[in-house]
Specification:
Helices cover about 35% and strands about 25% of the residues. It contains 4 helices and 5 strands. Strand 1, helix 1 and strand 2 form a beta-alpha-beta unit. The model has no long low-confidence stretch (mean pLDDT about 90). The protein has one domain: Response regulator (Rossmann fold).
C-alpha cells in the first residue's frame, strides 16, 4: 500500500482521514504543522500528499513545494471553495466520501498539462 501524508489543520478531519486511509492498509503521516509537512515531503517512500486547500496559504505553499521538490508526487486536494489558485492532481470537493478519497489515492498520476 501507499505511504501518504495528510496535511489538514482541522484535528477532527485530519484524524478521520488518517483513520480511513490506515484502515485500508496505507502508511499515513498526518500533521497540521507546515514545517513538519515540508520535512515529510523529503521522505523517499512518500507517494502522495492529501491537503486541505481551505487551510489557505500553508496548504498552498505545501503544494507548491511538492511540485518543486517532488514533481512525481501525487497531490490530492480537498477544497470546499473554488478560491484557491493552487490545484491538485486530483481535486475532491470536501467533504468527500471515503470511497472517493480511496479511489484518488489508488489512481495513478496522470501527466499534468
Amino acid at each position: 500500500m501507499s505511504c501518504l501524508l495528510v496535511f489538514v489543520e482541522d484535528p477532527e478531519l485530519r484524524s478521520s482521514l488518517r483513520e480511513i486511509l490506515a484502515l485500508e492498509g496505507h502508511q499515513v503521516s498526518a500533521t497540521a504543522i507546515p514545517s513538519v509537512a515540508l520535512g515529510l515531503l523529503r521522505e523517499p517512500s512518500l507517494e502522495a500528499v492529501i491537503v486541505d486547500l481551505d487551510d489557505g496559504e500553508p496548504a498552498e505553499e505545501l503544494v507548491r513545494s511538492a511540485r518543486r521538490e517532488r514533481p512525481a508526487l501525487r497531490v490530492i486536494a480537498l477544497c470546499g471553495t473554488a478560491g484557491s489558485p493552487v490545484r491538485g492532481d486530483v481535486n475532491l470537493a470536501h467533504p468527500c466520501h471515503a470511497r472517493e478519497l480511496l479511489s484518488a489515492v489508488e489512481r495513478p498520476l496522470q501527466a499534468r498539462a
